[in-house]
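Side project, low priority. Logging it here so it doesn't get lost.
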Amino acid sequence: MKIYNAKIYTMDIGIIENGWIEINNGKICSVNSGTPDSICSGDINAEGKKMLPGFIDAHTHLGIIENGIGFEGDDCNEQTDPFTPHLRAIDGINPFDFCFEEAVKRGITSVLICPGSANPCGGSIVASKTYGRRIDDMLIKNAGIKFALGENPKTVYNDRDETPVTRMGVAAIIREGLHKARRYYEDCLKYQNDSENYDLPEYDIRCESLIPILKREEKAYFHCHRADDICTAIRISREFNLDTVIVHATEGHLIADILAEENIPVIAGPLLCDRCKPEMKNLKPENAAVLFKNDVQTAICTDHPVIPVQYLPVSASLAVKGGMNSYAALEAITIVPARIAGIDDRTGSITAGKDADIQLYSSEPLDIMSEPELVMINGRQVV
């Protein structure tokens, strides 16, 4: 199938003013300028509309905090143990949550779904498509492990008079867990290399769950708002050689040069919210723009349901109001989150070989009044 006569925002090699793509078996086969030599009955005339890759929300709790349901549908935080790397977000996601449909209708074709930030370590994060009936079939990959610094874990455990109730306690619990996992992994390697002289350590599911980030096969996502918490995340990351992503970074604009020097990417947001807790007192719409202008790799998120997932493009438009150029804002919800999450081999741009996650617009994609006139996920038209 071909989609032709389109203005293609590839988010990879720039804009093709008049181009066409070919799709086969759910993948983009080719991206071309001009018009195809032949047109078949199933091909789509874009009539000059803007073609973009599907949007990506790099930090959500979509389907793990269900729409309009209280305790029964809230599977985001296991607040019974502060260190739970063995929990898997995929086990708590309900793909029949209505918010998946709202995401699709606004052109959001991929999301990262995370455990909450009640625990210093909350569990594994998944990258998923937004259309389907079984999360296993929607899965793109396991993206990494969620850590949390700052007020959230302090608040949860302070109410119980349990550790951690200070920022020192939060960091200590994370360090302790990572030290145990590193020693466990080293002992496993010793046994693999010399089973006659070393014993295999007793199986530890928590340590096993952390091995991929210690090997830098997956990323460590640190929930941080305040600048000092961001610096603590950097400190811990250096100690354990982690491939780290900062999530939220509300005060990132105060230390944008430091983040750039450390080459640590940021998932900024939510932007359309109030300053609901002390660590968000420096929330500014200019944050993402300042990070971008300091050469920090910056994606934009909604933190759904804090901001409903369908308002991801509106969040990007607020970043434009704060000083980010509009093309960079589009990158911040397409190719940049794909690169940060390590899914840019599958999605994030209109590139041959990638999944056919496509949308078409007659109007400006970031305009609050805009909606895509066509959405495809894996080459299947879903809008």
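Brief comment: The radius of gyration is 21 Å.
Revisit when time allows.
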